[in-house]
Structures are given as C-alpha cells and as structure tokens.
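Readers outside the structure-tokenisation community will struggle with the description of the input data as it stands. Showing the layout once, in full, would remove most of the difficulty. For illustration, here is how one protein appears when written out as sequence plus structure tokens:
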Amino acid sequence: MSAPNSSSGSARTNHLPLYISLALLATMLACWFLWPAFQTTLREGFTVLRSGEQPRIAAWMHQFGYWGPVVLVLGMVVQMFLFVINVVLLILVAILAYGPWWGSLLALGGVVVASSVGYALGWALGESFVARLLGRKTERHVVDIVHDYGVWAIIIARLSPALSDDAISFVAGLARMGYLKFITATVVGVVPLIALLAYLGEESQRLKTGLLWVSGVSVVLFGAYIWWDRGRKREKKSA
C-alpha cells in the first residue's frame, strides 16, 4: 500500500509546475474578459512596446509602482502568443526601469515563469495545440532539434535573440523533456544574454551590435556542434 501512495505523491510533485502555470494562464484569461481596465492596459502596453522608444517604455513601466514587476512578468507570458514582441525587448525594459541588478533578476524570473507556462501548455495540450500555434512545419522541425540535441538546443535558443525561444518552450513540454532539465538549460542560456543587455544598457547602436554578435556566434557554434555530432554518428554507424 505504501508504494502506490509514494508514486502518487511523486506524480503530483512532478506535475506541480504544470498546475501552477495553467492556473496563471486561466487567471490572465479571466482578467482579460472580465476586467476592462486590464484589457485596456495590455493594449496600451502593446502600443508602447511596439514603438521601440526606450525612454517611453521605461516611463510607462514606472506608472505601475509596486505592480510594475508583476506587469512585466505577465507581459513575458503574453508575448509568447503575440510573436511580434521579442522577449529581448522585455528584458531590456526590466533593466531600464529597475536598474542592471534588480532589473536583471526580475527579467530572469520573468523568463523562468514564461518558459514554465509554455512548457506546461506543450505538455498539457499536446501536438495539435503546438502545431496550430507554431505551424506544423516549424513544430516538427523544433521537435526534431529538441529530440536530437536536448539541453543544448534549449541553451542556444535562450542565448541567441535570433532564434525562437518561445517555440522551444512549447516543444520541450510536448517532447516530455524533464522540467528540471528544461528550466536549468533555460537559466544557463538566458543569463549571459541578460548580462549582456545589462552591460550594454541604453546605448542603442552598441546594443544592436552586441546582439548581432551574440546571435551570430551562438548560431555558428550550434551549427558546428550539429556538424560534429552528425559526423560522430556516421562514424558509429560505419564502425
């Protein structure tokens, strides 16, 4: 009798991130439909973020006072479904509004929450949901990458602004990658990107150059790793 109880407790523990993420998403949907001020604020924020004007973005964040961090984290969750807003912009917003240290910690927390939501949705809603959201071709391509390269695919996707880190979250859940492995790879990949944004700060030209460099280097390194890994697999088959 004790073994089944232990197994049941373990299952509940393993699925805790899923339950928390789905509860957060349900709360957001309820606020959108039942709270007009919430919907208006999101629409206004969408307009401000799309403007790309950093002083305007920082000023908009400060109007929320103590609720600003909550708004920012929710924005990171919502942007997974909008795709026109890059999470890099929201990380930069956090740094501009709250400084390089607290802003970086807030950005990291927001990425972890948003990634957990994407992972949970991919896990809970399955292939049909992910394929509708990303497109069948993209979904299959990212699934193959996650299956073949595991945590390295997650790390490079987080590190490189040029890649779709939102897609990788949904697909990691769909592929049943272990949550702790997924979230650890997410943190390992996104911390250098956040540190770079905190260092470059508001200097837009230097920021663009730095992002281009980190995107290019990370993609080249991942491409080199794929080439090496495929060669290694061919040698094993021929041996």
User: Anything to note?
Assistant: Residues 1-14 have pLDDT under 50 and may be disordered.
